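Protocol step 4 of 6: record predicted structures for both targets in the notebook before any analysis. Target 1:
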Amino acid sequence: MSWWETVRSGLAAIRSHRLRSALTVLGIVIGISSVILTVGLGQGAQREVEDQIDALGSNLLIVSPGSSTSSSGMRGGFGSASTLTFADATAIADSDVVPDAAAVAPATTSSVALVNGSTNWTTSLVGTSTAWPQVRSRELSAGRFFTAAEAEQGAAVVVLGPDTASELFGRLSPVGQQVTVNGTRLTVIGVLTSSGASASGTSEDDLAVVPVATSSRLTGSTADTVSTIYVEAANEYVLSAAYQEVQALLANRHGVTTAEADFSIATQASLVETANETNRTFTVLLGGVAGISLLVGGIGVMNIMLVSVTERVREIGLRKALGAAPRVIRRQFLVEASLLGLTGGVVGVLIGVVGAQVLPHFIDQAVAISAVATIAALATALALGVGFGVYPATRAARLTPIDALRSE
């Protein structure tokens, strides 16, 4: 029997038991489609994070209080200062001390409720300086940012993120309108353009930006500490130098060594790596679940092939009596098992591709189809069919004609 005749025979055997064959490959279908979607979700999330990081610029340093420990926690520090202060930001802005820093923007963050008439919306209130738009690479879709004079006076002005403006004013232009925060009326002077989500997954569009003095008055805070200090390096080529300068300056000011730093400095590259590492972890986890489904599907193929051998044992005995070699019998069942695996793989890929087009409409997450993952999934399905078909095929090949023909 030629290879082509063997394939035709295998296809005929599958068609003769359509329902049984469909149920047999169901596990492989679920596993393959899960692999396609899992890898697609991971790659889609990775691309979105990289796009967001690129939009923020490649020469940004983000200085935060506390530092990571070997146990993955956060520590306050070993020196006299346990948090970052406005004085730290002022020192970093000194061009004689940190010559490679182009701009510095300290920021405080708190949660407040903004009220417009009968509408209220809870969002993040960011108190910062006039350098914030430059350092964060943010532009305005309407209005303007607050001036140095307004920042110094603690003027009652606010710049809204696009999501915040939409929640409070709908389709109306918020510029020139007023919102109330803790009983204080603020005039909306600008609206930011959309920036999407940060590397940590938090929205960059749902916020309200005010001068630091205004933020302190609204929240009643008298602390001199800041949540974050954003430092823009002069360009991406001096980013490493700026990192070293900021690190040395803060360590000296806080009376600690760099190894005992009570602060941490993140670069865009480190944020990308952290986000990608998280995506990889989830991808591996979900891929493991899909792998279990594939294993179950492979066991299903083996089970149904053993049933097929049992049902066709007299046919096997007759063919052997007519001179068929064991390798021909083995090849016949291996081809049939391979076709089952490949069929499951093809159907699984089709479901995965369709799911990749439909899923983003429900979970607001891009799904990127990977050609490599698709080919690997098909190869895995084929390998599963071959691997789990070896034992049934070998069992069929070892049957003797006499025993096979005597079976009921």
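Target 2:
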Amino acid sequence: MGTFIQLVVDGLAMGSIYAALALAIVIVNQSTGMINFAQGGMAVLSAYLAYAFLGMGMPLILAILIAVAISFALGAAIERLLMRRFEGGDPDTAVVVTVGLLTLITGICGWIWSYNNLQFPSLFPGDSFTLLGAAISWRSLGTFVVIAAIMVLLQVLFQKTKVGLALRAVADNPRSSSFSGLPVGRLLMVGWGLAAALGAVAGALVAPRLSLTPGMLDGALVYALAAVILGGATSPIGVVVAAWLIGVLENLAAVYVPFIGHDLKIAVPFILLFIVLLVRPQGLFGRKTVVRV
């Protein structure tokens, strides 16, 4: 029983990493209707900025907050100066641009800070405590709580606030939103800025666990995209629950399903993804799109 609980706890901790990135992807999707493949690279760049500020002697929390603020401005600038040029065109072109942006940011990070593993301090203590026979680290618990709080705040933002509703309206139909008087351009910049700021938080939470490198979030991005599709790209709660589910199931399958083991556990979330999409194409918590004819 202790092994089972430990696997669940470790799975939730790893799932929180996927969830942090998935939430940033959801913000861009909710405000623009597209998937930003550069989100992982933007989060890594934010972590490197915080690392640079730490090197200047700033306290950790201040370094992270400044990195979050810079990331918000950077995300808004990317939308205004780059992505806006592709709005209204082929959606596939915009997606390819985000892939190119990911490659560019990764290269810039490697050029400035090298590809060596760097140690990034954690906001939470590194020791752990025992609960029901499982060792739970304060670092994992802190990440879990922060992600849960962000999930609730985003759900409230998109469901209960004027800004959130306006972001959703722009994503659903920018032309009609413009005719209704909504400042579409500014809302798109806010959406990208919020996603970049959340990515900065994700980078600061993940870097102490994985070591800071330009490709730190490449693997996590694949799981985060799986969580977005599985949970439903319109639901912050859905993607977090899906990310936790992926983290727990791959851990349990690696230990309790002999032919999977640790080598094939990466296939577990995608098998789950295929099964869910066959039954519910909009994801577990996504809303079904209704088209009037």
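Step 5 preliminary note on target 2. The chain has a mean pLDDT of 80. The longest helix spans residues 2-32.
Proceed to step 6 after PI sign-off.
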